[in-house]
Every structure is written in C-alpha cells, then in structure tokens.
Amino acid sequence: MYEQISKNRWKTALMIVVALVFFGALGFLFSYLIVRNGFVGLLIALAIYVPYSIYSYRYGDRIVLRVSRARPVTREEEPRLHNIVEGIAIAGGVPKPAVYVVPEQAPNAFATGPDPQHSSIAVTQGLLDTMDRVELEGVIGHEMSHIRDRDILLGTVVATLVGSVVLISEFMLRWFFWGGMFGGRDRDREGGGEGQVILVVLGVVLAILAPLFAQLIRLAMSRRREYQADAEGVLLTRYPPALISALKKIGADTTPMRVANNATAHLWLNQPSRVPGQGTHWWEKLFSTHPPIADRVRVLEEM
Amino acid sequence: MAVVWVILGLVALAILSAVFTYNRLVRLRVRTENAWSQIDVQLRRRYDLIPNLIETVKGYAAHEREVFDEVTQARSAAQGATGVQAQAQAENQLTRSLGRLIAVAENYPQLKASQNFLALQEELTGTEDKIAFSRQFYNDTVQSLNTLIQRFPASLIANLGHFTPREFFQTEEPTRGAVGVQF
C-alpha cells in the first residue's frame, strides 16, 4: 500500500510535467504560426497552465465532480449511503469522504480528491436503486481503497490535465471533420488563407495527439489498480460475494451514461459508455482503462 | 582506527533502529487508542438510539413488555461494563436482545411501515455495521501492535518502554457472514 502511494505521487508529478511540455509546445507552435515568434505563445501557455495545474492538483476534484454533475447529498436524504460510507471509512482508518450522487440511471461510482483528508465519493442514482446494502458496501469498499492508495490523486490530475487535452482534441477533431466536409472549402476559396491553414495544422496535430494521449492515460491508470482496489476493498468489507454480485449487476446493465467522457472514464468503477446497448463505441474502446467485469469477477471468486 | 569507526557506525545504526522501532510502537499504541475510542463512539450512539426505538415499538406493541425490559437491562449492563473482555460480552448480549426486539417488531405490519421505525431501523443497522467495522479496525491494529511487541529485537524496546499487548475485542457472532445474501 505504501509502495502504491509513493508510485502514485511520482506518476502524478510525471503527468504534470508531460502536460506542461504539451501545452508549452502547443502555445509555441500556435504563436509561431501566427506572429512568427513562438516565445509569446509559450509564455501565454505557461501563464495559463501553471495556475491551472496547481488548481487541478489541489481542487481537481471540484472540476471532476462538476463535469459529472454530481450533487452533494445530506445524511437526511440518503441515510443508508451515508452510514455505509462512514462505516467503510472507519474500517479503513480514514476520515469520512464527502458523499455525492450523480443523477444517472447506469449503476456506477467514482472517488476523487487530492488525499484521504479531502476526498469525495460519488455514486449514481442507478447504483443506489439497484444495489442492496452489502453490495453497496462492496462498491464503497472498492472506492475507499482507491482513496487509501492515493489512486484518486493521480486519477484526478490525469482527468483534469491530460483529460483536458483529450477533450480539446476531440472537439477540434469533430469541428475539423464536419467543418472540412461542409462549408470549409467555400470559405477557403474566398481566401481565408493564413487563419485556415493554422487551424488545419492545429487540427491535424491534435488528431495525431489525441490517441497518443489516450494511450498515456491507459499507461498511467494501469488496469492492475482496478484488481488491486477490488482485492483491498474486499479486505475492508471481509465479504467478497457482495462485490462479486455488485460487479455482475453492473456488468449486466447496459444503460448509457450521459455524463460519460474520455477524460474522466478511468475514474469510474466500470467504464461508462454513452452508447446504449452492449459494448462500447470504438472511440471509447481506444480509451479503455478497465479490465472486463468478467475477469474481475473471476479473480474475486478465486480468493 | 578503522575498527573504531566501524564500531561507532554500528552503535549509531543500533540507536537509530531503536528510535525507529520506538516511534513505530508509539504510533501503533496511539492508533490502538484511537481505534478503541472509535468503537466507543459507535457503542454510545447505539445506547442513544435504544430509548427512542423502544418508545416507537411501544406505540404499536405496548404489551411486549418482556423484550423491552430485556433490551433496557442489556443496555445498562453494557453501559456499566469495564474492560475490553466484559464490554465485548455485554455488547454481544445487547446485540442479541436488539435482534429479538426487531424480530418482535416485524410482527406488527403497521409498525413496520411507519417512517419513524424505518428510519430508526436504518440508524440501528448502520450503527451496528459501524461497530463491526470499528471493531475490525481495532483488532487489526491490536494485532500489529502485539506482533511487534513480541518480535525479537523490538521486544527489547517494548519492554523498556512498558508497551504491553492489548486485548482483542472478541465477538461470538459470525463477523460478517450471514448478512443478507439474496438469491
């Protein structure tokens, strides 16, 4: 566990540096293309990036909770959830995390925050509706293990720094794709010239980088940590069948999730999908950060 | 000369590891005390819930006096218990009598449906889970403390610092086995 904590700290620092280099280079390139002087852009990029990275290190959880539309719930609204979170926190010897509910029907959950003293656990409405008490305990045990191992620090920084690159790239790609197919050419003929070229270059660069960054997220958030959180979660609740049956229910559910996106996918208990029905979209598969549910169930059953 | 340095180095190493071990012992002792007070908080919460629970059940099933008396007696016995062993026994007794109270309450459909009772039942279940979890955390901590105290080089430091093994918080009930398996 302590080994895992220090590994997560190092990886977090590495991610901050990688994103720093990326944003710096992007700023340099952009401003070189416009004013033929890269350093202006580099400075601007750093002026934005440095405060943003500090913010995302300490308060990245707020960003993650907001983009997931998570809502804080009181003890009166959700006594069962509060009791379970408090109980598992006691079992793990950590302070009780803040409790949030995400208004989605797909059963899922995530944890976020810089350290166990400032952590939050969010579960979907669907999870509350479909799980009984012990299953919910199993799920919370898994999330509590992420909190104890500081997986949440790395996960949150990855989501807010690397994830923002992914989201910008996706946006540019989509824009570039549709803009290029319809109407883009007309404007070209009227002599949009320089500005168009810059955007095309930027679009191409981001289109190449998006999958690379997806790969980066996958490397940073290795699948092993999901197995590990499953095992450690069961060590907290001392009752593997609960997590097994919870995972089976989650795996059988095919409700799409509206707030799913590739920047935060790795934080969830199971890979969320925006596409209804079995399986995930190929674009989401590219960002696949979770081992298949069946494998996780098998590992737990062997314990 | 070289021999002196080697000896000095070894002495420094021994002192360092002694300090390290001592600090670890202190840390574990503090954690054990925290864990115990955590159990205490949850036990108290359960004592506080009981009068309310009895009042609510009485409202629908006033004549079940026997079980009310049993719970009340178990509660005051638990509150008066001292020492880990006696406390654990008294709490087990209280858990059993509360189980009977809930079983009695199940016979009254109106009571079972009342919001107040449902809320109290959730609080009771939640608190009993927290008692179980805090006991688990306490026992884990006690185990690492006791192991360290008995292991060889550390045992010397433990003796010097008057660290004594702690008692486990024992329970007869199957820890978390039979809870709500649904097919």
Order of helices and strands of chain A: HHEHEEEHHHHHHHHH
Shape of chain A: elongated
What is the subunit organization of this protein?
A: heterodimer
Helicity range of the residues of chain B? over 70%
Q: Specify the number of helices of chain A.
A: 12
Mean pLDDT across residues of chain B: 88
What's the Cα radius of gyration of chain B? Answer: 24 Å
Description:
- The complex is a heterodimer of chains A (303) and B (183).
- Chain A is mostly helical and 303 residues long.
- Chain A has helices spanning 2-35, 38-67, 79-92, 125-130, 133-148, 151-181, 184-189, 194-220, 224-237, 240-252, 282-286, 293-301, and strands at 71-72, 98-102, 109-112, 120-124.
- Helix content of chain A is 68%, strand content 5%.
- A 4-stranded mixed beta sheet of chain A has the order 1-2-4-3, with helices on both faces.
- The radius of gyration of chain A is 21 Å and the shape is elongated.
- Chain A starts with a helix and ends with a helix.
- By secondary structure, chain B is mainly α.
- Chain B has a single domain (18-160), classed as Up-down Bundle (de novo design (two linked rop proteins)), CATH 1.20.1440.
- In chain B, 80% of the residues lie in helices and 0% in strands.
- Chain B is built from 6 helices and no strands.
- Chain B has helices at 2-60, 65-80, 84-105, 109-113, 115-150, 152-160.
- In chain B, helix 1 (2-60) runs antiparallel to helix 2 and helix 2 packs antiparallel against helix 3 (84-105).
- Chain B is rod-shaped.
- Chain B starts with a helix and ends in a 23-residue tail after the last helix.
- The model of chain B is unreliable at 174-183 (pLDDT under 50).
- The chains are: A mainly alpha (303), B mainly alpha (183).
- Chain A binds chain B through residues 79-80, 82-84, 86-88, 90-93, 132-134, 137, 236-239, 241, and chain B through 31, 35, 38, 42, 119, 122-123, 125-127, 129-130, 132-134, 136-137, 141, 175-177, 179-182.
